[in-house]
User: Fold this.
Amino acid sequence: MRKVILGFGLLASAVAGAAGTSDADTLVVSQGVARVTLGDVDAYVHRIPESDRVGFVAKPERIETMLRNMLLDKQLADEARKLGLDKDPVVQRQIALAVENALSRARMEAFRSSLKAPDFSEQAQEDYLANKEKYTIPKRYDVKHILFDIKTRTHEQAKVLAEETATKLAADPSKFDSLVEELSDDSSKKDNHGLIENAASSSFVTPFAEAASRLEKIGDISPPVRTVFGYHILKLVKTEPEQLQPYEVVRESIISRLTAEWMEAKIRGKLDGLRNETMQPQPEVLATLRERFGTIQLPPDASAAPPESTSEQP
Assistant:
């Protein structure tokens, strides 16, 4: 299997490079009666948003999965034709719907490509001046922590251990580092010795982040803090003040955001314009749809609301 994956990995760059060329009939892979050409691959990959295509073909496993699925579809389709299933009226309608769907995607891709965004340089600077808080890096808190987890003990047991440790630290704060190595259940301590950088950021669970942000002076130690992982004791080891990023640093990202918002507004307007055209329903036909496909028999109590949980949330 590894050799197969490596082989498809080598193919990934060829597929990426060939997209949009005229080699549509060039054979990529075959299996039984099924043949997948570069044109087939182009058609498949073009269903993926343009911004995601390079990342998609960069993964050999994705290329292999795509080709295997395409081969399987072609083999099954060949069997279906031999059985005359392509003549079935419902299947013909499904094929027609697939054509409509492909054309719909093509139209929206063409519409998106036709949009020419204005220059947002002036608006970007206005946005920066009016919303400086959005471009300010918050104050940074680096902490060390001791974790008493709840994998092998109860919440109450973890709490007792944390409180006992907090008492020891109140008497002798200099023991913090040694207690990290001795007591902390955080498996990453062997590499970081309990250090958590930028601990007040949204990357961390809220109680932990809030506890870090409440520490004021280097060396301050928190009381035990409960999170979904157990109980933590934090020590502040470093801070950096909040900092407004220079306009030159964030300019391109602001322009990109404003451009994307403008593009999405145009696309939404296009779609809303079509959706809001007056519908002409046929009530008599609509009324027959449930009976056309059968009714679902629900259990007698299926509509009853589930009982409210009385269990305490962790």
User: Anything to note?
Assistant: The first strand starts at residue 27 and ends at 31. The two ends are 45 Å apart (CA to CA). Residues 307-314 have pLDDT under 50 and may be disordered. The chain is about 55% helix and 10% strand.
